[in-house]
Amino acid sequence: MKLENLNIIIADDHPLFRNALRQALTTTFGDTRWYEADCADALQQLLDAATDYDLVLLDLQMPGSHGYSTLIHLRAHYPELPVVVVSAHEDAATISRALHYGSAGFIPKSASMETLAEALHAVLYGDIWHPEGIELLEIDDNNHEQMANKLAELTPQQYKVLQMFAEGLLNKQIAYDLGVSEATIKAHATAIFRKLGVRNRTQAVIALQQLEMEKTDIS
After folding, report:
1. 70, 101, 154, 204: which could form a disulfide with 65 (CB 3.0–4.6 Å)?
2. Contact, 46 vs 9, CB < 8 A?
3. Which H or E run includes 107?
4. pTM of the entire structure?
């Protein structure tokens, strides 16, 4: 794979970081087209476009991400699209869980731009990259694993509705924002509850929150 004419998404809610990242990588990937998303919804809108993306650089904590949930969603619905987590949290637990959920690499935000370029080259050539000296942990958590598998079954629209549930929006508000009927939202809700194995919105949001970054992940 020749690294030219790439389409790369930077999904991070900090505009200064997105700008710095894009500028720093321009020298390495000079002919790359950069796309930016400041929340999970904006990321989904980019993915819904016809562009054939080569890579997503994902911040785990941008609005709407709910920890690892967006990573899990991306891997389920866009399995051919490499996702690299770029995070300020660089402990072994966070790195191990991100890789466990399908990230093609994990780059700390503290990494030098030389290291960042090296990591992206590795991932684009099909390797898995993580910082040296990190002892990866074995992830053995059946509850989280079961919920991750259930979340992966949601369609992009169902995942969007679940995110809006988590924001506390009413069915009427969600229907207006998405340009559909309330009956459609209720149908989505029924499907979400069934797939997640819950009975109502509150339980669905609690299920989603299981995939938030835990204190042990961000120490």
Report:
1. 70
2. yes
3. strand 105-108
4. 0.80
